[in-house]
Design goal:
InterPro entries: PilV_Myxo-type, PilZ_domain. Residues 20-118 form the PilZ domain. GO terms for molecular function: cyclic-di-GMP binding. This protein is an alpha+beta fold. It is globular and about 30 Å long. A six-stranded antiparallel β-barrel has the order 3-4-5-8-7-6. The protein has one domain: Thrombin, subunit H (Beta Barrel), CATH 2.40.10.220. The longest helix is centred in the last third of the chain and has 15 residues, at 107-121. It has helices at 38-43, 107-121; strands at residues 3-5, 27-28, 32-35, 47-52, 56-60, 70-77, 80-92, 97-103. It contains two helices and eight strands, in the order βββαβββββα. Strand 6 and strand 7 (80-92) form a beta hairpin. Helices cover 17% and strands 39% of the residues.
């Protein structure tokens, strides 16, 4: 089994490429995530988050995804409904997990994501 990371994020031979590249704090959080594309929804009915940040989330899924694939997610996090675009940033086959980096997030949604992350920190 392998771990794959978006090649665009890693420079060959550069040890800093493996450093934490996240700008937003992650918190452990479990909630249901739905894929809005019909073909994904049919194969990923029970997908749950592992953690979330204002910049993305980690999901547990048995469906295979390619790094760089675009996805559209729908989720209810702590009473806040989100419909967000993302890109598969990494895949960990052995853990059946993927990392999704949110793209094209409005200022309003980013502020709501920050509030949600803060609410999980208080639990």
């Amino acid at each position: 089994m392998t771990s794959k990371v978006a090649e665009a994020e890693m420079a060959p031979g550069d040890p800093s490429a493996y450093a934490n590249r996240r700008t937003d704090e992650r918190v452990a959080a479990k909630f249901a995530v739905r894929f809005e594309h019909t073909e994904d929804a049919a194969r990923a009915l029970r997908v749950f988050s592992i953690n979330v940040s204002a910049g993305g989330l980690c999901l547990r899924t048995r469906k295979a995804y390619d790094v760089g694939s675009q996805v559209r997610l729908s989720m209810d996090i702590a009473g806040e409904e989100f419909h967000l675009n993302g890109i598969i940033a990494w895949v960990r086959d052995e853990e059946e997990a993927i990392g999704v980096r949110f793209t094209d997030v409005s200022d309003e949604d980013r502020a709501r994501l920050h509030r949600v992350v803060e609410s999980f920190k208080k639990r």
